[in-house]
Amino acid sequence: MVHLSDIDNVFVSNSLAAGHIKVPLLEHVSVYLGPNEHKRVVITNITRLAASVVAQVYSHVQNLTVSLSRYFSVDSSYTSSSAGVVLILNPDAAKATFYIKAGEDEVLATVFALPYAAQDPVPGACNLEFILDNDPNLHLTYNVYETAVSFAPANLGTDRGTVPPACDVGTGGHTRWRLTYELYQYFLPENDLSDKSLSDGMSKMSSAQSIMANGMKITTIPSSQKTKLYGNSYVGIGVIYNVIVRDPLMKTSAAYAPVSTYTCELSTKRYECKQSDGNFIYVQVLCTVIGIYGLLLCLAGHRLFEAEFLFFGFLIFGFMSFVLVTRYSALDFIRRFAILVGGGLFGGLLLSLVRWRFNLPLVCVAVVGLVLGFLVAAIIFFTPLGKSKATDEYSYWIGSINPVHSHAWPGDPFTLEV
What we know:
disordered N terminus, 5-stranded antiparallel beta sheet
């Protein structure tokens, strides 16, 4: 259940009773909606310098619907716990209006509006995939292993009353193809699933300036690249994503509407995170088997020499199979998991056979060293070094290959005869 006392400074005025809410620009306003209740939101304090407004509405758990139409038509509405709309201003407009509606449950939401000038890019204004004509929302899909963030491309800003430039006519420097996109991530406090924690985090990820000050930059992509990005999932930990679109020619930027996820089904009563992915049992079984196998190898030592190569070959080939199939195919997790196990067993048996038949210690030990190299590289990129601005794509691969190569190369081959 949602109560007004859950969030401080709830916006209450005579406008609520009248069925509409006044939201000044750059102010976070809390709104209570009963089941299936809808209200008109009026953005005020809009100056002549603003050409568009991006309105953001978010709640903790419950979904709500934002719409440009009072009738909440399908082609002008969007439903989510984190939703946004772009309001293109008329030449004489001093206010802007949109509508919000609750679902079957009551909801306590927060509304925030950002103005943008004519030189600023318009988030989601070149949408060809999602429902809204101008869609500033980030669309999340996730499982317990990965989270995918997709969004509509932005367009160049224009003055009030001016027709915006066409989205797909030409790719020169005077078109929207010069825009770049930066994905940012912000972690909420661990084990804190409260609505206050989410509200504080969403406010830090709302505008471009606060995003850069509080968020962690994941990557930058040009307009020529597909606007769908992948990252790790963190079950039970709140994560907020947002995208900043930049115009390098005008040196301006704009923020999309932030979106949050706990990578699980969050209970509305106790704020408990429930594991909702039934495939997780396969990962648990595999990790248990690998752990027991590795423990036996630790106790037996080199007395099970071929078994060691089977183990490390499984790790290397299984890991590489899963990564490559995930990157270059659209298979579901069960099929990818089967390829992981099959590829790992094939690689482990192959490495054991090479050791048994050809007795090539240099090759075999080099493959074993790859495991430690991958581990060292992963640890490096989880340190502050991995979060530095120097980790572009080139630096990333150089930083990955160096520890892998240094640990994989065994040195003097004459000492490796067994």
